[in-house]
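Lecture 7 notes: from sequence to structure.
We start with the chain below.
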Amino acid sequence: MNKVFLSGNLTRDPEVRYSQSGKAFVKMGIAVNRPYAKEKTVDFFNLTAFNKTAEFCGRYLNKGSRVLVEGVLQTSTYENKDGVKVNSFDIMVDNIEFAGAKRSDSGGDENYSGGRSSGNDYSNRREQAPSRRNNYDDFGGEPIDPEDTPF
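Predicted structure tokens for the same chain:
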């Protein structure tokens, strides 16, 4: 099985291009922190996406965007200008998702004001949520007592 999952930040803005047949594609890079290294280490991977996925990347992602990537590893070999054989490893993207809030130029989250002044932030919505009755959750029409659960 050939499946790759990565979480990291894009290293450059995705630029959508089109093949002669009209197929959309985008090439990007991702930087992935290696959490278990003694020193701070980062691995860099090339990403390639096609069709709707490529158009999504070009429209909504930019350099520094934190993303989750699902894809397959593809290897290829070519000769560089000096005639040396080079192995290339690329991730062919099947699915890509946002993994964090978009940052504004000021360094803060665009959708977070830092306080409770906004009527749309999560804490206000949670306070306004209707209360549950009796600490029981309905599941399949039967009330479940949390004390009866094994965990």
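Points to note: Residues 39 and 64 are 22 Å apart (CA to CA). Residues 4-98 form a domain with the OB fold (Dihydrolipoamide Acetyltransferase, E2P) fold (CATH 2.40.50.140).
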